[in-house]
Specification:
Elements (H helix, E strand, L loop, with lengths): L44 H5 L7 H4 L47 H11 L5 H15 L12 E3 L6 E3 L4 E2 L4 H12 L9 H7 L12 H8 L3 H25 L4 H14 L8 H11 L9 H16 L9 H12 L9 E5 L2 E5 L2
Antiparallel strand pairs: 1-2, 2-3, 4-5
Length: 354
């Protein structure tokens, strides 16, 4: 039985073709994965130490794109859309118009919050886009609802990986999911596996799960109660915290998605290769919109920091989910993440037209 490193997850299917040589991956654990923290992450120490020196240079080499994310000839990065012209500073009259009342200039933080409130990723249509974008990277498919029944051991040192967000038997989030399902529907087909899931947590072992766990998982996946439990755990651990933090930072829908995708892969911890650490690295390079900074500049800094974190481990060395997806939308100035969207992950092309 192999002890599990302190880590979150790895891309599945298409992504694994690019990382077949890696058996154990090193990212910081998410909230549900935090139970598996007995052993340190096996990252490259030199690469982790270099994270503070990340710059925006990778962005300069990327192709520009049109409003839908189509790659075009290189251009300057698009500027964020304006929220309107502010009037003159308080106390000054409007030139040429005596008696006109001056308009106070909004504070940067207030403007940032207003922009963030304009388009929220929790909007059902926006959230569906987010789920499909993540699924393209995690499952090589836009049909994320087909993944409730997904389960396999992808030989990444985390035991079984399953469901819509890659719940793992070795990292704690699968255990919490099955516990929730048992609370809502006692005596369900997966409830008998709870003792075994508690024992294998933190390892890659299948002891007590084989030979019927995968079959019973797929059976449970047909139950709407189990599907809802997967949705709720995804939102509790990953989606809601990511969107809340992004809105607090003054980010619109694209930035909210960028945070969510990072949290899915890296987990919400605070070390240098987790979501919290990536955000801290970015904030050393650029101010968030809530701090009065430029939204595009900050998101480029965040994506630079995320790429650097990904490259500390071989299994995440392919950064196409950033380079030819999120960065393409950002260079197009599509901060509201509006369709049509076109992107590539691991060389495969995807599109959302409406």
């Amino acid at each position: 039985m192999t002890d599990l490193p302190k880590s979150r997850r790895t891309p599945r299917r298409g992504a694994l073709l690019l990382a077949v040589s890696v058996a154990v991956l090193p990212m910081q654990s998410a909230a549900g994965c935090a139970a598996a923290d007995a052993t340190p992450a096996k990252v490259d120490p030199a690469k982790v130490a270099a994270l503070d020196s990340v710059t925006d240079s990778p962005d300069a080499a990327l192709p520009a794109s049109d409003g839908g994310g189509n790659v075009a000839e290189p251009t300057q990065p698009a500027k964020p859309s304006s929220t309107g012209k502010a009037g003159p500073a308080s106390g000054a009259g409007t030139a040429g118009k005596p008696g006109t009342t001056a308009t106070a200039k909004p504070k940067p933080k207030a403007k940032a919050k207003a922009k963030a409130a304009a388009v929220d990723l929790t909007d059902p249509k926006k959230k569906e886009i987010a789920m499909e974008l993540v699924s393209s990277a995690e499952n090589s498919s836009l049909d994320w609802k087909a993944q409730y029944k997904y389960i396999e051991d992808i030989d990444d040192g985390r035991g079984y990986t399953a469901g819509i967000i890659g719940f793992c038997s070795g990292t704690g989030d699968m255990l919490e999911l099955v516990e929730l399902y048992a609370q809502r529907k006692p005596g369900n087909v997966l409830a008998p596996y709870l003792p075994a899931l508690r024992k294998v947590n933190g390892t890659d072992s299948h002891k007590g799960l084989d030979p019927n766990f995968t079959k019973d998982w797929r059976k449970a996946a047909a139950d709407t109660a189990f599907q809802q439990a997967q949705n709720d755990e995804r939102d509790r651990v990953y989606f809601n915290p990511a969107v809340k933090q992004a809105k607090s930072d003054g980010l619109r829908a694209l930035g909210q998605f960028i945070y969510y995708d990072a949290m899915v892969m890296h987990g919400p911890g605070e070390d240098s290769v987790s979501f919290g650490g990536i955000r801290k690295t970015a904030m050393k390079k650029a101010k968030t919109p809530a701090q009065g900074g430029d939204e595009v500049t900050y998101l480029n800094a965040f994506l630079d920091a995320r790429k650097a974190a990904m490259k500390t481990e071989e299994a995440h060395s392919d950064t196409s989910r950033v380079d030819t997806a999120q960065r393409v939308f950002l260079k197009a100035g599509n901060l509201d993440l509006n369709p049509p969207l076109k992107w590539k992950v691991y060389g495969d092309s995807y599109s959302i037209n409406n």
